[in-house]
Specification:
mainly alpha; Rossmann fold; two-stranded parallel sheet; 6 helices; globular; ADP binding; P-loop_NTPase; NB-ARC; plant defense; NB-ARC domain-containing protein
Length: about 140
């Protein structure tokens, strides 16, 4: 078991020129769901390790239609096996508001600022690598 501060990192940057064989239909399907007008929702991509969940999420996250629709409201955070809610909120807020110093903010203030963002603009958060359903319950 890795130490608590050692986390698996995933990144939302992907080579857009490289086609993902067999995923095109799924990419377009997820993009379509996310662009629906009243799409206040949680959309989960679940399955066994290694089947391409993160790759699919990356392709959707970097899709031109998604970038245009959500503009400055995009955030990607990797949860991994060991995490702190505060670190997740800091990561999300830092990506939404890079000018904001999140290092000394308490969890409540971080959540308040994230809620303000959600009240004023469309946003898409990819929360990658959640290992247990109970972890999702802690951060949703």
């Amino acid at each position: 078991m890795p130490p608590q501060d050692e986390q698996r990192q995933t990144f939302y940057i992907v080579d857009e020129e490289q086609p993902i064989v067999g995923m095109e239909k799924n990419i377009e399907l997820v993009v379509g769901y996310l662009l629906e007008e009243d799409s206040r929702q949680v959309f989960a991509i679940t399955g066994m390790g290694g089947i391409g969940k993160t790759t699919l999420a990356r392709k959707v996250f970097n899709h031109e239609k998604i970038k245009k629709h959500f503009q400055e409201g995009l955030a990607w955070v990797c949860v991994s096996q060991h995490f702190e809610k505060k670190t997740i909120w800091q990561t999300i807020l830092q990506q939404l508001r890079p000018e904001c110093d999140v290092s000394k903010m308490m969890e409540g203030k971080l959540l308040e600022k994230i809620v303000r963002v959600l009240e004023t603009q469309k946003a898409l958060f990819v929360i990658d690598d959640i290992w247990r359903e109970g972890d999702w319950d802690l951060i949703k």
